[in-house]
Every structure is written in structure tokens, then in C-alpha cells.
Amino acid sequence: MITIYGITNCDSVKKALAFFKKHDIAYTFVDFKTNPVGEAEVDRWLSQGAEMQQLFNTRGTTYRTLKLKELNLDDGGKRAWLAKENLLIKRPVVETGNHVIVGFNEPLYEGKFLS
Fold first, then answer.
1. Residue-range domain boundaries for the chain
2. 6-60 tens-digit pLDDT
3. CA–CA separation, 87 vs 90, rounded Å?
4. How far is CA 10 from CA 16, 33, 89, 115, in A?
5. Where are the beta strands (DSSP E) in the chain?
6. Is 10 an annotated catalytic residue?
């Protein structure tokens, strides 16, 4: 079972959803705005191979608006912020059983889902 986490108006999420639709691959979509994820999901993604550096989006407006750079957060602090403010999570997060892929990467998706 494939679960895609993100928000509907994110361009990377749109590309990922289009990829799965184009290749007729079944998935479940979880929108952060209507179904927020907590520390349990973040911990699960980290245990499935995602790295904090991948998950914690330092390029988005939420990061800049909250002025998190000034806090110089360690991984524990970042984990807490990801659970509290889901828009800090780099999108999409694609969970496949016991593995997770962060972000949209078409060649990686092709290798993982089309082979």
C-alpha cells in the first residue's frame, strides 16, 4: 500500500500524484491540512530511511516566517516542529510499507514503482 502525504496545492505533490495516476498505481493521499501528522508519523519515517535533513524543509516560507533559522534547532527540536507545523515537512512523503521517499524524483519513482 502506498500512502502519499502532502498538501493539494504543492507543485511537487501534484507531480507525484500525476505520476501515480499516469501509471495506474493505487495510493492513498493524506492532506496535512485536513489530517495533520504527529511525532509518531515523523518517527516512523525516520525509522524507514528518511533523514531529518530531507524531511525538514528549510527552503519554504513557513520556515522563514517562523524564523526557525535563528533557533539553531537540533534534530529533537526539528522533530517537534515537524509534528507541530506540518508545512515544514518537505513534500511529498511517499510511504511504501517499510520504506519512505521524500520529495518528487521521477527517475527514483520509476525505479521503485515501475520495475
1. 2-113
2. 999 999 999 999 999 999 999 999 999 999 999 999 999 999 999 999 999 999 9
3. 8
4. 10, 12, 12, 27
5. 2-6, 28-31, 93-96, 99-102
6. yes
CB 106 within 8 A of CB 19: yes
Q: Which residues contact 104 (CB under 8 A, 6 or more apart)?
A: 12, 13, 15, 16, 19, 92
Q: Do the Cβ atoms of 55 and 89 come closer than 8 Å?
A: yes
Q: What is the value of pTM for the model shown?
A: 0.93
Q: Grid cell 518537505 — which residue?
A: 90
The backbone region for 3, taken as left when phi is positive above 0, alpha when psi lies in -120 to 50, beta otherwise, is: beta
For residue 6, give every residue at least 6 positions away whose Cβ sits within 8 Å of its Cβ, in sequence order, or none: 12, 13, 16, 29, 30, 31, 32, 91, 92, 93
Torsion of CA 87, 101, 71, 58, to 10 degrees: -70
Query: What fold, for 2-113?
Result: Glutaredoxin (3.40.30)
Q: Please report, as a single letter, which amino acid is at residue 33.
A: K
Spot the catalytic one: 4, 10, 30, 87. 10
